[in-house]
Amino acid sequence: QVQLVESGGGLVQPGGSLRLSCAASGFIFSLYAMSWYRQAPGKERELVAAISNGGGSTNYADSVKGRFTISRDNAKNTVYLQMNSLKPEDTAVYFCYTRGRSAYWGQGTQVTVSS
Q: Which of 43, 91, 104, 109 could cross-link 9 (Cys pair, CB 3.0–4.6 Å)?
């Protein structure tokens, strides 16, 4: 079955960096686009970044452009989200997502940006 397992979240000070990872299994990873979403308390889940199956195309939410970078390693079945210059408003649970015949979500990883 499809599994998406996120890791790399934690507590970081404003201006700091984190790298999230999402390890995928149960499907042919290299055939599918992958995305990162986030959900802050009391807010709707929002798209943060997406990457095409081959990695040649990416797109970002305006709020993270220039600070976050999505990438993937198809040999490792893993997608990453490098987050730099973190702000308190980046605090959220971050989810990995893909869609095949169905939508698949990871369990999420908490990112807290606070001094």
A: 109
Q: What is the pLDDT of residue 100?
A: 84
- Tokens at residue 98, please? 């893909």
DSSP tag of 31: G
Phi, psi for 19 (deg, rounded to 5): -125, 120
CB distance 97 to 34 below 8 Å: yes
- Please give the C-alpha separations between residue 86 and each of 42, 80, 90, in angstroms, as whole numbers: 20, 16, 6
Q: What is the pLDDT of residues 53-82, one digit of tens each?
A: 999 999 999 999 999 999 999 999 999 999
Give the span between the Cα atoms of 35 and 104, in whole angstroms: 11
What Å distances lie between residue 38 and 53, 68, 89, 92, 94, CA to CA?
21, 13, 11, 6, 4
